[in-house]
Design brief:
α3 (63-73) crosses α7 (146-162), α7 packs across α9 (180-191) and α8 crosses α9. The protein starts with a strand and ends with a helix. The chain has 13 helices and 5 strands. The longest helix is centred in the middle third of the chain and has 24 residues, at 109-132. It is of the alpha/beta class. The protein is elongated and about 75 Å long.
């Protein structure tokens, strides 16, 4: 029996799908339901369902990012969307991210049943493939797919927008709907760096820009780019750039003088 989770902020939708489908005849059983994306993500990590029915237009939820997170972290999971959001480009992107069916509300029971049968057949096909390729790590092979790239890009955007604050891996993982472990793995594989290295690189690049302004003190610049400890800033700056922040500033000043003299 394949495990199913249903997520929708409309209780009547959750109740309707739960009760009106012949789940056992479809080789499925509902193991949990949720009424928002955050609760849904927690349930999915806890129960690791085979099939997910979800809306993507729920309060405080970035639907595409949630879908990308699920497909990146659980590549074999089958996902169907049931939503009132009718933008074609959105549906196309969702399908590209790995969604099996994109159903518009109100959908008939026949449409919902067809999507369930399709997802079940896909799972059975994956099981056969898995048995034939026991030596292949399917999870690792998914790291370069669109969903994983989508997650890394969104994570980078969030870091670039929030580097000046105390941003953490946990916070970024929550915003991209994946676990800390999975996000860390994706960053290492896609960027060749861990979270701390990526964050520090962004901060140091911003510090380099600010050092061009001679009216700003180095200690203030360190704070402006998110370092709470001046010693830590100095150590990271020298490691990344090869010289101290003060030496870097002096080099900039010398170059500016040379340019004016010429």
């Amino acid at each position: 029996m394949y495990k199913v989770v249903i997520i929708d902020d409309e209780p009547i939708i959750v109740e309707g799908i739960s009760r009106m489908m012949s789940w056992e005849q479809l080789d499925c059983r509902i193991i949990a339901t949720a009424y928002d994306g955050i609760e849904g993500a927690e349930i999915i990590r806890k129960h690791k369902p085979n099939i997910v029915f979800t809306d993507i237009a729920m309060p405080d939820v970035d639907g595409l990012t949630m879908i990308a997170g699920l497909k990146s972290e659980y590549p074999d999971m089958e996902i169907s969307i049931l939503t009132g959001f009718r933008k074609f480009e959105y549906a196309q992107r969702a399908v590209n991210l790995g969604v099996t069916r994109f159903l518009l509300k109100p959908s008939s029971l026949d449409e919902i049943e067809e999507s369930i049968r399709t997802m079940v057949n896909n799972l059975k096909a994956k099981n056969i493939l898995s048995e034939c390729e026991n030596n292949q790590n399917l999870e690792d092979s998914s790291t370069d797919n669109e969903a994983s790239n989508f997650i890394v890009n969104n994570a980078m955007k969030y870091i670039e927008q929030n580097y000046a604050h105390k941003v953490t891996l946990s916070e970024v993982a929550e915003k991209t709907y994946v676990s800390q472990w999975h996000l860390s793995k994706l960053m290492n594989r896609n960027m060749g760096q861990n979270f701390s290295e990526i964050l520090n690189n962004i901060r140091i690049k911003e510090a380099q820009k600010l050092l061009k302004n001679p009216s700003l003190r180095i200690g203030d610049i360190a704070e402006m780019v998110g370092f709470v400890d001046m010693t830590h800033f100095s150590r990271v700056f020298k490691k990344n750039i090869g010289v101290s922040a003060n030496e870097y500033r002096n080099t900039i000043s010398s170059k500016n003088i040379d340019i004016r003299m010429k």
